[in-house]
Amino acid sequence: MIKLENIERRYASDEVETTALVDVNLEVAEGEFLAIMGPSGCGKSTLLNTLGTIDRPTSGHYWFGDQDLAAMGEQALAKFRAAQLGFVFQSFNLIDELTIEENIALGLAYRKDVSGNKAERVAAAMDTVSIAHRARHFPHQLSGGQQQRAAIARAIVGQPRLILADEPTGNLDTANGEQVMDILTALNAGGATIVMVTHSPSHADMAKRRIDMLDGRIVASAMRAI
Amino acid sequence: MNRFALLSLYRSLTRHKLYAALNIGGLAIGIAVFIVLGLYVRFETSYDRWIPDHENLYMVQSDFNLPGSPFDGVSYQTPWALLDMLKETDPELVGTNIMPAYGSVIRDGAGTAENIAPADPGFLDFFRLELAAGSRDALKSPRNAVLTEAAAERYFPSGDPIGQTITLSHDEGPTNYTVGAVVRDLPANTQFDFSILIPIVQSTSPTIIAEERNLGALTALTYVRLETAADVQGFLEKMPAFIRQHGDGIGENPDEMLSYVVEPIADFHLGTADSLRQTVATLGIVGLVTLLIALTNYINLATARAGLRAREVAMRKVLGADRSKVMRQFMGEAILTVAIASLGGLILAELGLPFVNATGGLSLDIPYALVVPALVVLAIVAGALAGFYPAMVVSRFQPAAVLASSRSPGGGRGGARVREALVVFQFGLSIAFMIGTAVMMAQTSYIRNADLGFEREGLLVLSTFNDPGLDDAAKGTLMARFREIPQVTSVTAATMAVGGSGSNTGENMELPGVPGPGPSVRKIDIGDKFFETYGIRTVAGRVFSSEFGRDDATETEDEGNFNIVINRNAVPVMGFDSPEDAIGKVVGGDRPRTIVGVVDNVRYTSARAEIGPTFYVYKSELPDFAIATLRFTGDPRPVKEAVRAAWQESAGALPLGMETTDERLETFYEDDERTARLFAIGAGLAVLIGMVGLWGLASFNTARRVKEIGIRKSLGASATDIVKLLVGQFMRPVLIANLIAWPLAYFAMRTWLAGFDDRITLSPLFFIGASLVAIAIAVLTVLGQSLRASRTAPAWALRHD
Ligand SMILES: Nc1ncnc2c1ncn2[C@@H]1O[C@H](COP(=O)(O)OP(=O)(O)OP(=O)(O)O)[C@@H](O)[C@H]1O
Ligand SMILES: [Mg+2]
After folding, report:
1. Which pTM does this prediction carry?
2. How far is the CA of A138 from the centre of ligand 2 (A)?
3. Which of B404, B716, B795 sits opposite A110 (nearest CB)?
4. What's the gap in Å between A185 CA and the centre of ligand 1?
5. CA of A50, closest CA in chain B: separation in Å?
């Protein structure tokens, strides 16, 4: 489904130039559950953002199916994100002024092609992550675990082909972290392709495949032993 | 505020330069507008308050009860003999009087127009005017003149004017006077416009004395001193008996037709015209509202920015600062910011004043002794008020919530609503201002081009043609000379001319079959070719012609039996169904007059004045007090040259006044246009401040929402979606603002237009237009930032904090 070819990402600031990704080549198949690991600052988030098209590579190709996303315009990318992607962030990134329900509905707001009852789909997504009882609350009224479940509901409400999760358990305690991992595993079982950054080896072990990064490069790739 | 707080303010102002510029600049403009318009209001309301003891000085005014007549209502003139008559009734009474000023000073055979006013000998003492030289008793000898310092400087630039001779042309033609005193120049804010005072000439002829004592002979302004409310009461109570005793000249039951009222002299100026009071009130409100808008802005921007500083405040609280400390810091900042803005406003006002003076025909200057303390008070009061809300919002932030939140708080939903309400308020007033400006501009330009009932182009009026120094023979010669000027196509003379003539007569017109004296109708005496010269349309019947003997009233004026022409407005007043119906009808009771024609209504003077019912009387010889009007073709300059040459030959040293229609009407346009211009300046600046405020608010709002924009983009929002979101957020308050603006502007403008007899209709286009402009302004103001925000890379935005 996804193929990255010779992806590079350099950040140019006034004095120093940082290279966050160096010659990254990666393939992700439909239905995969991929975990990315590595020390802080090695480029994991950059890689994930590149996959999510919210960051553009400096050079290289990003094939999604037969389209090169690295060469596409902003407008088309926005459409692509709305239709194909779901994001889960370490810091949840819910919008303060909107209720949980409204935050989740935002996952459908930018799709022109959604058919059927939106409210039902939102309700279904809330059920999936067991957050329905908090629908009318505001984000700051929820615990971190609840907020992260709501963020997952927002990511899946549009039934994306690809879910990108950047340390989704990073701000959660063990129990809440397990809960989030269970949801992601279940989603993957349901057919969603997932790419997840994590610092937790045990969570990485729940993925089907794992890659390790160091200084902007992919240094190892391993399939889970089944 | 301690040293650290000052340092923190200084750093925050220099760090957020744009914020500082918007906040202080907007406020400074608001303060400048407030200062300038406040000065204007102060000037207009300060008239004659400089006169010592002005509270006890009253003007006596004639209040006529003549329903339907153009002379109905209060006239501030009275007979000049009224003062003597009042003193005969009450020898204790202290009073004085003065006549309207006109005339000229003659030097080396040439006349210069000068405001020469005959006045009571006690005039200088009554108003306690200060003398620069000479004797306070100067006006007691009949051939003495009193000059203002400015006039003395004009005519006796070198040396002592006292005892010198000056030749003045007033009622009796050129006469020599001796300068008996020089009075200090009066300030600009006074009702008196004289530059030279001369004594009133007492006549010895019994008929003239009788005429002067007729209570209907309005010739002078009479003033009395009344020390207490009881004195005022007592004076007024005596008046009905006084009028019964002296009022035979105005008819039977004179006390039913006339009463006297007294007005404090300091109230006189604003009372002269409704439009003036309206102007003063309007511009005062504009000044106040502009200041309010600017303060609203401050509150808005300060609160918005306070939100951006929430983390700082939260951390301070975590570190142990208490709420009152945080409040104090914010209020202190506000007061200091308003103080800086006040200084800026003062500078702007000083820089802008010459421009405003030029636009408004004013001569204002800034009285620092008054303005500086006022600004200090403003800085403290307005600063505390404006700082209170943001200070409260910020100090109330719960540190835990702030530190945990994904975006900087803006005071929560309540805060957002308050800010929205402030935008509504600001834009509501701005839109109302825009509507007002548009209506005023449309009305003033409409007046300038309105159909006056005659052809306004190509008329030249000789306003000095009725100078008492010009005898009938000279007038005849002049008329003949005017006709010979090649460009002149027609010449006429009448007691009325475009721009007015100073004479104002009316008669009661008894109607056949209707008991009573009949309606009061304005009377205009006209000479040959009046209607032709002015190009006044005939509506029915015919206008005068020398072919018809009965048209000419020169001989028959007193007994009747002559023809008249009436205007359209007289038709219903005289009880006719249509102009045609009036033709051939005889009116006027025992002085029968036959209506031979009806002409269109003619607006000779202001668009504010009603065109009353009028009848025209034809005098084949020049009517008394007539003013000449010439119709010419082409360039007025050679015509004026030719007229001047003819005048110098026949009238010699008498001053010559001649103006075209537009020049004559200028005075009537000026006041309203000046108001419109001042209003437009104030309104324009208010709108500008509103824009600055919206821009600032939008920029903070956008800054606050950077992370949200990132989130939305990651969810697939396109740049267009983001722009819509950010712009749309401001559309709601701007649209709601119309709900305030429309009724406000509607009632204000309807009232203003009601002051005009000839006026435009209050079209919905003004309202829709202003709203569209406001929406366009709002969109353009926030669009730039929204576009920029919409293009930010989402990965960057998500890292943003
Ligand atoms: N906007 C930016 N400007 C400059 N450098 C950046 C920018 N964003 C990331 N970097 C740099 O790129 C490198 C990779 O950053 P990235 O956020 O991808 O690391 P990460 O592996 O996700 O680390 P962590 O585990 O701490 O989240 C780092 O050296 C970082 O400093
Ligand atoms: Mg990271």
Report:
1. 0.76
2. 26
3. B716
4. 27
5. 9
What are B467's two structure tokens?
């100078």
DSSP code at position A139 = G
Residue A36 has a pLDDT of 95
Mean pLDDT score of chain A, rounded to an integer? Answer: 90
Q: What angle is formed at CA B285 by the lines to CA B284 and CA B286, rounded to 5 degrees?
A: 90
Residues of chain B contacting A56 with CB distance shorter than 8 Å: 793
Residue A94 belongs to domain spanning: 2-223
Distance from CA of A147 to the nearest CA of B (A): 12
Domain-wise residue ranges, chain B: 57-271, 459-666
Selecting from B405, B716, B798 the residue whose C-beta is nearest the C-beta of A82 gives B716
Distance in angstroms (rounded) separating the CA atoms of residues B371 and B375: 6
The total of structural domains in chain A comes to 1
Contacts of B416 in chain A (CB under 8 A): 97
Judge contact between B714 and A54, C-beta under 8 A. Answer: yes
For the CA atoms of B296, B302, B308, B309, the dihedral, rounded to the nearest 10 degrees, stands at -160
Q: Spell out which residues line ligand 1, taking CB within 6 angstroms.
A: A 11, 13, 18, 20, 38, 40-46; B 796
Q: How many CA atoms lie within 13 A of B290 on its CB side?
A: 34
How far is residue B596 from each of residues B51, B551, B585, B616, measured CA to CA in Å?
55, 9, 8, 11
Helix, strand or coil for residue B175? strand
Q: What is the pLDDT of residue B590?
A: 85
∠ CA B362-B364-B365, rounded to 5°: 155
Give me the interface pTM, i.e. the ipTM. 0.88
DSSP string, B122-151: THHHHTTPPEEEE-TTGGGSTTEEEEEHHH
* Residue-level pLDDT at B698: 81
Phi/psi of residue B794, nearest 5 degrees:
-60, -35
Tallying the residues shown for chain B, one arrives at 801
Q: What CATH number is given to the structural domain containing A84?
A: 3.40.50.300
- Which stretches of chain B drop beneath a pLDDT of 70? 1-9, 11-15, 67-71, 306-321, 394-416, 502-503, 800-801
Measure in Å the smallest separation between the Cα of B413 and chain A Cα atoms. Answer: 7
Interface test with A, best of B707, B714, B790 (most A CBs within 10 A): B714
Q: Do residues A93 and A39 lie in contact, with contact meaning Cβ atoms separated by under 8 Å?
A: no
The answer to whether B795 faces chain A, any CB pair under 8 Å, is yes
